[in-house]
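User: Predict the full complex structure for these chains.
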Amino acid sequence: MSNKPAFKRAEPDERRQSLIEACARVLARAGASGASVRTIALEAGVSPGLVGHYFGSVDALVAATYGHTGARVDAALAAALTAAGPDPRAKLEAFVTASFLPPIADPQLLATWIAFWSLVRARSDIAAQHDTQYANFRARLVALLAACGLPGDQQRRAAIAISALVDGLWLELCLSPGSFSSDEASAIARAQLDALISTRPATWKDR
Amino acid sequence: MSNKPAFKRAEPDERRQSLIEACARVLARAGASGASVRTIALEAGVSPGLVGHYFGSVDALVAATYGHTGARVDAALAAALTAAGPDPRAKLEAFVTASFLPPIADPQLLATWIAFWSLVRARSDIAAQHDTQYANFRARLVALLAACGLPGDQQRRAAIAISALVDGLWLELCLSPGSFSSDEASAIARAQLDALISTRPATWKDR
DNA sequence: TTGCTTGTTGGACGATCGTATAACAAGTGA
DNA sequence: TCACTTGTTATACGATCGTCCAACAAGCAA
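Assistant: Here is the predicted structure of the four-chain assembly.
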C-alpha cells in the first residue's frame, strides 16, 4: 500500500509567491495586528517555520507583500493606460477610472493598503517604500497632465489633488462600504478631472 | 521627617482624560501595534493595572480615545464655523480650511487617525464609531452645501468628494510630510470647493 | 490620632508573539 | 534500490501580550 505524501515540495519562487499572497489575504481580513507568522502560515497551508526559511523574518515578508501589492497596482494602471488608446486626455481619464475598477478597487486590496499605512510610522523600510511608490504615482500623473496640455505651474497641485481624492475615495470605500458605490467614486473622480483640466478630450460627448 | 507620597490620587474624570491622552500619544508615536497596556501606562506615568480599573480592557480605552479624538475634531470645526461669520459660503470655506490648520492638522492626530483606520476591520465597535462619525461629518457638509444653494441632487456627491479629498490630503501629509505643505493642501481644497459649487455666494468678489 | 474607603500598585497567570533549530521526508541521481 | 540533498514540519525558547487580583497607602471623616 502507498501513503499519500505528507507535504508537497514547491519551487522557491512559487512558495514565496504563495506566502506573499497569503500574507495579503490575512492583512485584508484581520488587519496588521492579525498578521502573525502562524496565521499567515495557516492561510498558506504550510508550517510556520517556512516564513523564516524564505523571508528570514515576518517583517521582511510584510515588506515583500507591500512591494508585490504595489507592483500589482502599477501593472493594472499600466494596462489601463495602454487600453485607453493614444489620446492623452483619454489616458488620464482611464488612469483615474481604473482606480475604482477591479483589481484595484478590490476591498481586500484596499484593506491591505490601510494595513501598510499603519506600519509606516513604526517601520522605516515601509516608509521608504511608500515614499518611492507615492513619488512614482505622482510623477505618472504629472506626465499625463503635461501631455494634456496643463501648464507646468499647475501640474504639481493637480497631481496632488487627484491622488488625494483617489486615496480618500479608496479609504471611505474600504471603511464604510455602504456609504457609496465604486461607480459613484469613479464619477466623482472624473468630475474632478473635468474641473482641473479646462482642455476637453477629443472624444468628449456629454456629462 | 516626611516621605513624599508614592503616588497621587486623581479625580476619576481627570485620570480617564490622562489615560486617553497618553493612549493618543502612543498611537501617534508607535501605531496601533505599539499601543499596549504597559506602554500606555508608562506614557501616562501610572501603573498598568489602572487601565483595567478605569476602562475594563485596553480595547475600551482605544475606543474611548477614538471618541475623544473625534470630539476634538468636531469642536475645532464648530469653532471654525462660528468664527467664519454668517455667510454660508464663508462657513463652508472655513470648514474645509480648518482641516489643515492646528489642531486638526497636527501630525500626531493624523497618525492617531490612521491607527484607528487600521482597527476598523478587526473591531466592529470601532467600525460602528467610524460610520457614525463619517455620517455626521458628511451631514454637516451637506447642510453647508445646501445653505450655499447647491441643488439637492448634487449635495451628496459634493459632500463625498470634499470629505474624500480632505481625507486623502490628510493621509499624504501624515505618510510623507515632505511631499507638500499644509498651505498647499488648504489651497487645493479651496480650489476644489470653487469647482464644485457653480452657484456664487452673495458676497462673491474675486478669485 | 484612628479607622475606613478606595485609588493605586506590582506581580502572577495563561496565551500568543517571533525566531531558531533538530528531526523528518520528498524528490533526485547513481 | 539506496544514499543524499534540502524543502518542510514540529517543537522549544524567551519575550511580551491582556487580564486579573491581593496588598498597599493616600486622603478623608470621626
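The mean pLDDT of chain A is 87.
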